[in-house]
Design a protein that fits this description.
With 222 residues, this protein is an alpha/beta fold. The protein contains 8 helices and 12 strands.
Length: 222
């Protein structure tokens, strides 16, 4: 699972981005300003940094410069400062990519995965029995054979993996996957996708051992 440092002082953005990135299989740590970001960088290992320019203290340019002076950690600026000067300055201090707000969430994920592929970042392979999920490549294999999962099936699998050991109700699952294909997902559709996912990852879909049904409550992956 790739570990992302999010440096942003707008708490609503931090909350929304953290939830979204976690659903996509990433681990997220956040800091509101330059001092907090540098402290986290000294304490933990990250695979990528997402930086705003305007921070509670200091600025994103200084954080990027500090990162690049000490490591090859990839940096993406995610900021409302989309003017030419800010963009050029961002790249001049070492940014690997630059995205202006408002941004499209799926595009952000695509750019993150692309940079992680190029840099070899992220211990992104998550095992589930003989199924291996690569959250950087956005792929899954079973016993060495690639599984062809739809966007909703893949999102559903990530939700289970990110909540291992917890019982997830159907309402909780619907809340987390409804936008994976850009459409509303109803209860009947959820049933279909759980059935399809089990057919692809279970040895015996009629007696599932990976995605278990907890009668009257929901589903659980251990």
């Amino acid at each position: 699972m790739a570990n992302i440092l999010l440096v942003e002082d707008d708490r609503s953005i931090v909350s929304g981005l953290t939830e979204f990135l976690t659903r996509e299989g990433f681990s997220v740590r956040s800091a509101p300003g330059q001092a907090g970001a540098l402290e986290l960088l000294a304490q933990e290992t990250f695979d990528l940094a997402l930086l705003d320019i305007s921070l509670a203290d200091g600025n994103g340019f200084a954080v990027c410069s500090a990162i690049k002076a000490q490591s090859r950690l990839p940096v993406i600026f995610l900021t409302a400062s989309g003017d030419e000067f800010s963009t050029v300055t961002g790249f001049d201090v070492g940014a690997d990519d630059y995205i202006a707000k408002p941004f499209r969430p799926r595009e952000l994920i695509s750019r993150i995965k692309n940079i992680l592929r190029l840099t070899g970042g992220g211990g992104a392979v998550i095992p589930l029995g003989d199924v291996l999920v690569d959250t950087v490549k956005g792929s899954a294999t079973k016993a060495g054979r690639e599984l062809y999962l739809s966007a909703l099936e893949y999102r559903l699998l990530l939700v289970f993996l990110n909540n291992r050991g917890a019982v997830l109700s159907r309402a909780q699952l619907l809340e987390q996957i409804w936008d994976a294909a850009g459409d509303f997902v109803n209860d009947n559709t959820l049933t279909v996708y759980i059935k399809r996912l089990r057919e692809k990852i279970e040895d015996d879909p009629q007696n599932p051992r990976l995605i278990r049904t907890v009668r009257g409550l929901g589903y659980r992956v251990d």
